[in-house]
Design a protein that fits this description.
mainly beta, 2 domains, 7-stranded antiparallel β-sheet, two-stranded antiparallel sheet, YaeB-like, YaeB-like_sf
Length: 158
Amino acid sequence: MEKLSVNPIGTIKSGHDGTFILVDEKYVPALNGLKGFSHVVVVWWFHEFDNDEARNVMEMQSPYKSSPPSLGTFATRSPFRPNPVALSVVQAIHIDEDQGIIRIPFIDANEGTPVIDLKPYTPSLDRVESPDVPGWCGHWPESLEKSAHFDWAGEFNF
């Protein structure tokens, strides 16, 4: 099998000034045309869990209170996975195509997290009208907007 190579295109910056995606200078031209999309799909690297132990977890005690006691890695959004890749859909509050800065309200990635790709969120490709989910998570919010007001802390075992 061919060896894969992944190169960060930027990083997450969080602080008292807000939350931002800082795009590396080399990739700033790739932002051309992204303005106008209200949301962006951010593909990022769980760099704090990029080790042999985390990459070899295939099943785990469930992180969710209402789920079965054990789940396979692919049934979770846990950072413990064969390839520590994550994705988040975020609102693009402002895109500075010249400086390579995207202001976002929130992302579930830590300060300094490597961003490996950005994609425009398009409902025709990214939205599913009537998805099915297991009963244990059927009460979760149906949208990103509603998630902001949901008691996520009450859903996890940590």
